[in-house]
Design goal:
7-stranded mixed sheet
């Protein structure tokens, strides 16, 4: 079975390595590569989306709508993004590409049993949930809260940091419920697990917040996924309940104006 992976970055190639280990035929598409998209898609029976979230709007119209789509891109807030696709599923969780490539024991989350069959190894395992909306939202919200953790100057393993992680997880549950998703999805690795590793170094979102705390005029050199998600939240992509106090503070932070 051939699987076409959209994105030949660190995470895309880590996922591709798992597929090769499980005897799948893998081909990558990279806009900077030599292979044309139709060449990569030719003969494919499934597609994996592993591009940065900012590239998703340009990529999706080019993909076949009838093939199973595995969404491994984080930073997308709503399922409406994939309304034109007949068959999609979500892979998410606290997995660094280098750890996966090194065979470090990792647990992720899948919204379809086919993902578990395709990617599972002795060191990579999955929790299953059918809450596609919740898993997708967790993958975006954890980046936003990581920016806030950096802005607050929180240091991992301190009492203040632990307290923030707890409060952020409770806010995420309230947000999911307000948007017709399941609160308990936050208890899975795609929620609390991913939140914890993202609110610390080497997370780009966390480090951006730390640098902006030190210099209110700091501009990031690379894409900060949390800022992109925050911009979508400000535009009204999701409902933000009153309980989401940290998120509301971030939405009103003048230092983030016109940076998203």
């Amino acid at each position: 079975m051939k699987v076409a992976i959209m994105g030949a970055g660190a995470f895309g190639t880590a996922l591709g390595g798992l597929l090769v280990e499980n005897k799948y035929d893998v081909e990558y598409y990279d806009v900077k590569g030599n292979k044309k998209l139709d060449q990569v898609l030719s003969g494919a029976e499934a597609v994996v989306l592993a591009v940065p979230s900012g590239a998703v709007p340009e990529m999706l119209p080019l993909l076949p709508k009838n093939l199973p789509l595995v969404i491994a891109t984080k930073g997308i807030l709503t399922l409406d993004t994939f309304k034109d696709f007949e068959d999609y599923m979500i892979l998410s969780g606290p997995g660094f590409a280098d750890d996966i490539k090194a065979g470090k024991r990792t647990r992720l989350v899948a919204t379809d049993q086919r993902i578990i069959k395709m990617f599972s190894t002795i060191y990579l395992t999955f929790d299953y949930t059918n809450d596609e909306r919740g898993v997708l939202m967790c993958g975006a919200l954890k980046n936003v809260y990581a920016v806030q953790a950096g802005l607050m100057g929180l240091i991992p393993n301190t009492e203040e940091h632990v307290g923030f992680l707890y409060a952020a997880a409770q806010e995420m549950k309230a947000i999911l419920v307000a948007n017709s998703a399941k609160a308990e999805t936050v208890d899975l690795p795609c929620g609390e697990g991913d939140l914890e590793i993202t609110c610390a170094k080497p997370s780009r979102n966390y480090e951006y917040g730390m640098k902006l705390r030190a210099d209110a005029n700091y501009l990031p050199e690379k894409t900060v996924e949390g800022l992109a998600a925050l911009g979508k939240i400000k535009q009204g992509d999701i409902v933000v309940p009153e309980e989401a106090r940290y998120l509301r503070v971030l939405m009103a932070d003048d230092r983030l104006e016109r940076r998203d």
